[in-house]
Structure prediction request, 709 residues.
Amino acid sequence: MDIVSVTGVVKRYDDLLALDHFDLHIKQGEIFGLLGPNGSGKTTAINCMLSLLNFDRGSIALFDEAMSATRYDLKRRIGVVPQQMAVFDTLTVRENIDYFCSLYVNDCATRRTMVEETIEFVDLGEFAKFRPKKLSGGLVRRLNIACGIAHRPELIFFDEPTVAVDPQSRNAILAGIERLRDEGATVVYTSHYMEEIEQICDRVMIMDHGRVLAQGTCDELKRGIKTGERIVVEIEGELPARELDRLRVLPHVLSVALEGRLLSVVCEASGHNLTDVLAALRAAGVPLGRITCAPPTLNDVFLEITGRELRD
Amino acid sequence: MWSTFKVTVKGAVRTPSIVIWTLVFPLVMTTIFSVMFKPLRTQETSRSVAVAVVSDDAWSGSNFAQVVDTLSTQDTPLLDLHEVDSEAEARDLIKSGEVDGAYLVDEAGDPRVLLAPADSPAHAGEDISYEVNRTIIESVASSFLQNKELLMSIAAENPALLADPAAVSHALSQGVGVQKISLTRSQPDQTVRYFYAFLGMASLFAAQVAEGMVYRLQPTASALGARQSIAGTSRLRLLIPVVAACWTVSTAFLGVGFGYMCVAGDVDFSGRIGVCLVSIAVCSLFSSCLGACIGALPVKGGADARSGLLTVATCLLALFAGVYGTPAMILSDTITQAFPAASWINPVSLMRDVFYSIYYYDSLSPFFLRLSVCIGLAAVFFTIAVALFRRQSYDHL
Prediction:
């Protein structure tokens, strides 16, 4: 059963087409990544799924039932962690979590347990009596997450939860999301940080201009492009233009670029790319510095599909 | 709903601007009013009139001296006598402002009165009741002379009548009876109406509080509003406790302000404290519903636009309610004469009249009538707010 089923959704903001026949299907218990640059339609897609935004065409079903603004029974099974901080400055950490939990859970005793467990989950125990203004940015992010997950939702939307977060807090947040998945929750995770998506997502959708460009597991997406590996060589002398041309005609080489002293060679998947490139450079008598060889990234996938890089 | 109510109350009492405008401001204004109105209120306090008497041979044993002595030794003395030896000393006391006038008695036993000029700086600067004191001093002397003339006339025309004390008393009373009645249920205090007017105005602050709170619930206002909107709770279950919380906070804060008026401000609400508290509660409810309606309006411009709209509306309505002085009052009267319903549909006029009806009428009927209209309009505003607020989905966020 699909926990999320979005079919042919079209959403316009006046002349701007924000979602263009958008399709999305998410299975129970997976972390699904929505990857795309800013303005690609990720947040709009989530708001449509939550029935907060009207859409022009298509249909949305959650938990195999048609979603609408008044389906409070479905809403009670959903948690949302918005991109912006959505907590009360006038309430303490514990009061904030308790309040948002109370919008889903009426029983006080049950709620009290949930709140304490959530405080422990996000490791905010020693800050429980603090108001948000007394917390660092990373701690407020954790509070923002806690307010969205305290009621134990089955489906959780994380909308860029790590924006402007230090690496330590980011890792803690990502680890927490994996724990939620392990405990049975289904997660929809949007980000324009491909490293995060690669790190935690079981499946990924790449979107831009409101359209689905590709989807699958990270490996499937990478296998679907021509790029097999990227070889970067530090050149410690002059590299004549004719030698660059020789590199370009090597078997499996897709592109060659020299930026300053860094030579970047993109190759198709093959067993001898690195040895072939190094052999050609040695034959030209070029002194070499550091050499790295990396498999393709989601950025390469995006680059190859759209002709441009994922932008911040 | 209880959680939302609690959170809204906590949020309100922890928001400095709300506390300042709904609690601190009324306390400060009450203090300022009390200081401002102190001279007016002391004017109404009964106080003996300081008067000098030239205690010479003519004074001693004169009938007028007996009258004056009586007036200065009764339970609530009308006169406070300062005996001096000469007219010159009496004039010095008047000039210094120590006394308001002086009595002398001539050889014939008739009283003479010395008074400072009406614009005497020594008296005007001290007490604005000087005019009243001058009149009292003159009246005592002139009454004595009138009665003396009357008795002499009786002695000349019908001396036998003087043997009948009842007849003499009747003649002196001139058959005129004076009965003290009160047109109002308590002694009027012209300063109290300012406090009533202020209570009406302060009640309107609840509208600003409710407008801000309700606006923040909208998903178009902030991520916080969006988060609450997509929760598993209906919109109505969010709106009702928020408005109730705004009402509770404003009523509680105004109640504290009212208590301060009664205790520290020493304002006499003529035993109608309970009625005043009911008025505060109803006017706060009315304002909260008005604010909720403005907060739910689908206008662009965010919180500032709504707050500005409410401020402008309040100021304009206050102008038509005549609360900005005499010219505004004339405008208000003109509008009310041409369109009598204006004072019933203008929230500022209505709230002002709720409080004024406590002060101006002995009967509580006019008060309850206005109170009912307030509750009715509150229901109308709340219904509009609900209709606007029930919207669930948006084209833009």
Notes: The interface with chain A takes residues 3-4, 7, 10-11, 14-15, 219, 222-224, 226-234, 392-397 of chain B (CB under 8 Å).
